[in-house]
UniProtKB/TrEMBL annotation:
Lineage: Bacteria, Bacillati, Bacillota, Bacilli, Bacillales
Domain spans labelled HTH araC/xylS-type: 186-284
Pfam families tied to this protein: AraC_binding (PF02311), HTH_18 (PF12833)
Keywords on record: DNA-binding, Transcription, Transcription regulation
Superkingdom field: Bacteria
InterPro entries assigned: AraC-bd (IPR003313), Homeodomain-like_sf (IPR009057), HTH-like (IPR037923), HTH_AraC (IPR018060), HTH_AraC-typ_CS (IPR018062), Tscrpt_reg_AraC-type_HTH (IPR020449)
Protein name per its UniProtKB record: AraC family transcriptional regulator
Keyword Transcription attached: yes
Residues making up the signal peptide according to the UniProt record: none
Species per Swiss-Prot/TrEMBL record: Paenibacillus gyeongsangnamensis
Length: 289
């Protein structure tokens, strides 16, 4: 990384900014930014700072300790230093390679914005953030920080911080949503088991659990090893086979009882699934277990 100055434990670029009273009145203002490449003995702390400092790991690993917890974070992860909260972070002994960039800011709006983004003192880090443009976002923030040091006026930089935190908030909310929805697969199975004979579609099931059909089908298939449409078909076919074997209902009555619009569509689906027509199947009394 060009433009770095050598220090005892790192090569780094440190950028500072002093906001005006008007900028402070906005509620969030920039103070510090930079980037670094760690040397094998790199360590920061134990110490504390008086502002918020958001670090993004560009390469390598860092061991981050705060509030009695120690975690190892890696490329693509992010952590935040909170004001007046002691911390230590250092390179991992067996993997001293580390490259990071950061932005430091403060203001009465900073804490709530971070909390909105899912970053709190209790959980001051994010792992494996699914935002491929995040390295570029931090590069743009550094570029803007250099510009405002020369030209002044931090509003653009603040808007970029807000945009970054809005992206992180969207990711955080999606993760919470997915966590809270861990039961939706079971709910969808229950729904299909109860209503499969009523002509329901995959879209109906996705609507029931409140998910987009594509996402629902993708995750359902990955978790259960069978697609929703195959799951519904299996329920209908097995039920149809049982009705053929155990009852005297006509094939048309069975087709309509399973939600098929007519005899033809049921017969076609049944033959494709079992390799025999419903009548042929009834004559053999074969049931797929």
């Amino acid at each position: 990384m060009r433009g770095l100055k050598e220090y005892p434990s790192e090569n780094a670029e440190f950028l500072y900014y002093t906001p005006s009273e008007l900028e402070r009145a906005i509620g969030i203002w920039p103070l510090h930014a930079g980037r670094m490449i760690a040397k094998p003995n790199y360590i920061s702390g134990p110490r504390q700072i008086r502002y918020y400092n958001l670090h993004y790991i560009l390469d390598g690993q860092v061991v981050y300790a705060v509030n009695g917890e120690q975690v190892t974070l890696k490329k693509g992860d992010l952590f935040c230093l909170f004001p007046d909260t002691p911390f230590t972070y250092k390179v991992k002994e067996r993997n001293p390679k580390l490259r990071m960039t950061w932005i430091g800011f403060n203001g009465e709006g900073a804490g709530p914005l971070l909390q909105y983004a899912g970053i709190t003192e209790e959980k001051p880090y994010c792992r494996e953030i699914p935002l491929p443009d995040l390295p570029g976002t931090f590069r743009e923030l550094l570029h803007e920080f250099r510009r405002l040091r020369v030209c002044g006026g931090s509003l653009q930089f603040v808007s970029m911080i807000c945009a970054l935190l809005a992206q992180l908030a969207a990711v955080s909310k999606q993760e919470v949503h997915e966590t809270n929805k861990l039961t939706w697969i079971q709910d969808s199975e229950t729904f299909m088991n109860v209503h499969y004979a009523e002509g329901i579609t995959v879209q109906d099931v996705a609507d029931y659990v409140g998910l987009h059909r594509t996402h629902f089908s993708s995750v359902f298939s990955k978790k259960l090893g069978i697609s929703p449409i195959q799951y519904l078909q299996r329920l209908r076919m097995r039920s149809g086979a049982k009705l053929l074997a155990d009852t005297d209902l006509s094939v048309t009555e069975i087709a309509l009882s399973l939600g098929y619009p007519d005899l033809y569509s049921f017969t076609r689906a049944f033959r494709k699934y079992y390799g025999a027509s419903p009548t042929e199947f009834r004559n053999t009394k074969y049931i797929d277990e």
